Amino acid sequence: MHVVPGIKVLYFGTPVVLISSRNPNGTANLAPMSSAWWLGQFAMLGLGNSGQTTANLLRERECVLNLPSSAMVDAVDRIALTTGRADVPEGKVRQGYRYEPDKFGVAGLTQQASELVRAPRVAECPIQLECRIVAAHPFAGASVQATAFQVEVLRAHVEEELVIPGTSYVDPLRWDPLIMKFCEFFGGGSNVHPSRLAEGWDMPHQLQRTSR
Ligand SMILES: Cc1cc2nc3c(=O)[nH]c(=O)nc-3n(C[C@H](O)[C@H](O)[C@H](O)COP(=O)(O)O)c2cc1C
């Protein structure tokens, strides 16, 4: 039997992407996101308009999409409720966000120079995609003010042990992406870590939360 609960969140489960972008002062910003889908050598990214990353992508027209493995969940969660925007929007303050100019440092992640774009890669991420912004589309509705970015992958860097030897393919048995499902973190089908985002969004989940 189906019911009609009027579900409030539609995050059914998508890979987490750490987007690195360049701030106006030349430093790097880093933001977790998961509203991404892929077609050929392109991706569409859904990003809220109040974030620093959206401003950076509109201005710089480039970014790096870094895909963390599920083992990197702790680093991702550490920057979950941070923004690179100094004037934190009121709505984000209410959710517990704070301004953080050094997200790489807070996450314990390492900047690695890119080859084709100015934003750095995340050295620890097994898959890093250098991208240019092809187009930016307004994406707005009653509960969302966002931008849909079409990006083109210019160069893909992949950890050697994930590549099927002698091919241009990633081995799906070796690649274990960090998945965000209804604001909770999953890897290999299991819940792998408590989620600050779920706390900030006041999710009514029964998952065990550890104190930090
Ligand atoms: C796992 C995870 C997934 C997220 N997915 C998205 C997303 O798809 N789109 C989005 O706009 N924000 C998403 N967020 C929230 C952003 O990280 C948040 O808006 C943050 O302020 C962006 O950083 P920035 O302001 O420095 O750009 C996600 C956060 C987490 C922790």
Automatic annotation (TrEMBL):
Any GO MF annotation of the entry: FMN binding
Protein's UniProt keywords contain Membrane: no
Flavin reductase like domain location: 9-171
Annotated InterPro entries: Flavin_Rdtase-like_dom (IPR002563), Flavoredoxin (IPR052174), Split_barrel_FMN-bd (IPR012349)
Keywords tagged on the record: Flavoprotein
Name of a matching Pfam family: Flavin_Reduct
Cofactor: FMN
Family assignment from sequence similarity: Belongs to the flavoredoxin family.
Listed name of the protein: Flavin reductase
Organism the protein comes from: Micromonospora arborensis
